[in-house]
Design brief:
Keywords: Hydrolase. By secondary structure, this protein is α/β, with parallel strands linked by helices. The chain has two domains: 124 residues, Rossmann fold (3-Layer(aba) Sandwich), CATH 3.40.50; 68 residues. It contains eleven helices and seven strands. Helix 3 packs across helix 4. The chain is elongated and about 60 Å long.
């Protein structure tokens, strides 16, 4: 039985892993609560998450906005514009324990990276609001910049080339099951993120010394 390849690199998604992402946090107190509840409902009746996914895949807000007006009307479209223009309000905090985990990984000699589905128009807000992330991560692949996105294999392969990753020596954390499966499909170790303590346990299960 061959020995497991030592882990050298740990890659993190951003929203829902490093950062608390809450559309509600941007809209509550600005709109009537009943409207906020409708926009943020799981079945996405106003298309916010659908349109944001398009931005994450590389489309520009200016090109998407006419579709929002046509499909959901001017009132919803104006709220979507407000949301994008005030995106930092939807990122109220780093998730508990994650800054410490990234720091501990760096101190232990692991290389730490980011891989996120995020619009090229709003990603800068993450580093502006949480500059410690830019300091703790050696680099980040952003879907909206590359015009490719998780869970498709091409974005994981791009990260491998850009960061010099060896699949068997790489661990990935994402809060979305399909993105975890995408990483596993290209040979990475990957876990669905729940919280920092579970992530530490997952890393220790692969022999990482933390």
């Amino acid at each position: 039985m061959s020995e497991q390849t030592p882990i050298t690199d740990v890659v993190f998604d951003f929203c829902g892993v490093l950062l608390d992402w809450q559309t509600r946090a941007c809209l509550e107190g600005v709109l009537p609560q009943v409207f906020v509840d409708r926009i943020c409902a799981d079945d996405d009746p106003c298309g916010f998450f659908h349109y944001e996914d398009r931005m994450d895949a590389g489309e520009d807000f200016a090109d998407i906005y006419p579709d929002v007006v046509r499909e959901h009307g001017k009132e919803v479209a104006q709220v979507f514009r407000y949301y994008i223009e005030h995106y930092g309000d939807a990122l109220p905090r780093m998730l508990p324990g994650m800054e410490q985990l990234l720091g501990d990984l760096n101190a232990a000699g692991y290389r730490v990276w980011g891989l996120t589905n995020w619009s090229h128009e709003t990603f800068h807000i993450a580093f502006e609001k949480y500059p410690q992330l830019e300091r703790l991560l050696r680099g980040t692949v952003v879907s909206g910049v590359e015009k490719m996105h998780k869970p498709n294999a091409d974005i994981y392969r791009l990260a491998e080339r850009r960061f010099g990753l060896t699949p068997a020596g790489t661990v990935f954390f994402d809060d979305t099951a399909r993105n975890v499966a995408g990483a596993q499909a290209v040979g990475w170790h990957a876990f669905r993120f729940s919280d920092a303590e579970q992530a530490r346990a997952d890393l220790r299960s692969l022999g990482c010394a933390l």
